[in-house]
Amino acid sequence: MKVNLDLHIHSRYSAATSAKMDLPTIAREAAKKGIKMVATGDCLHSKWMAEVRELPERDGLFWLEDTAFVLTTEVEDSSRVHHLIIVPEASKASELREAFSARATSLDSDGRPTLRMSPPEITDAALEAGCLIGPSHAFTPWTGMYAHYPTLRECYKDRSDKILYIELGLSADSDYADRISELKEKTFLTNSDAHSPWPNKLGREFNQMQMTDLRFEDLRKAIKREGGCGPTLNVGFYPDEGKYNRTACTRCYKHYSPEEMKERRGRCECGGLIKLGVRDRVVMLADNCEPVHPDHRPPYLHLIPLAEIIAMALDVKSVYSAKVQKTWNELIRGTSEIQVLVYADLSKLEGEDGVVDAIRAFRSKDVVVVPGGGGKYGQVRLPDRQNSRKNDDQRSLFDF
Prior knowledge:
The chain is built from 15 helices and 16 strands. It is an alpha/beta fold and 400 residues long. The chain folds into two domains: 2-239, Metal-dependent hydrolases (TIM Barrel, Alpha-Beta Barrel); 306-374 and 381-398, no CATH class. Strands 1, 2, 3, 4, 5, 6, 7, 10, 11 and 14 form a ten-stranded mixed sheet that branches. A hairpin with a 2-residue loop joins strand 3 and strand 4 (61-64). Helix 11 (306-314) packs across helix 12.
């Protein structure tokens, strides 16, 4: 069976998260989205884990109605690089917490703890507990692995062959990552990193995987691409939408080439800091002129959440407006957002023609993407609405 998964979110115990990131709300909104298996996030936090443990557990997953939760945590190492750890059972989360406890100020002060540990040390602890580990949003400036290291081996040392996956993050897709040959055998994950449970946040990027059953060991097999299990689809944003996709000033957002950045010694004419963009960083790291996709790599589908598409089609500023929410609820009634966006027969979809046409445009890639950079998100526009929406209005999608 094919299962939609979002393997990286945060609970209300992480910094800058919604108070509604509780288990019942996450389960309900994941079902509306069409996500069958969702991460718990923050499984090292004692209060959050106490809530998770109250759910019925089966084969390493925790269940709330029809939503399966898998234990996960994101940690920051001593160099500010973030790592995503997927945990097989509650006892292993306790084991991991014990291993990290002496190297963290407090595991209960933030759901995403900072550890005084190197990537190899964190990897050793994760593997000892039977967990899976890989870099979070690997290409993102500031906290992505490739922002600090030129290769996986530089980061994880001789443990790099134990890294089974990398999370691409909002600013990269398979075409970006498959220009780097060391990633050929790695599974690519596309997750939301959601700090809010609403469907324009939760599952905004997700994975589809072939699994035999809903249990942790089948998830492990899918990530390892064993036993007939494996990824069948990655879904996420156009990389150009990312707020650090292009090299740009972090104050006025003027775009620069890497050569101009070097000539200016990293300072914009306005005095602001110029930040190297993900696209240019990939070019620096790439040893393939073009993406070389291995046979196991699934298709990558570029989408944005349905509420954003509706707001764009109806020319409404906020995805939370009554008009957008009414249209969204009507479209997903009896089904899910993912089903509407990816699989529904558009000729039979009941909704305003403009909204259906907008969904069709995304499916056919008939959209205009204006790149972001320097901390300012890019825009996706329908071809006939290129001047109708300002960037700040449109990018409410990315608010955590």
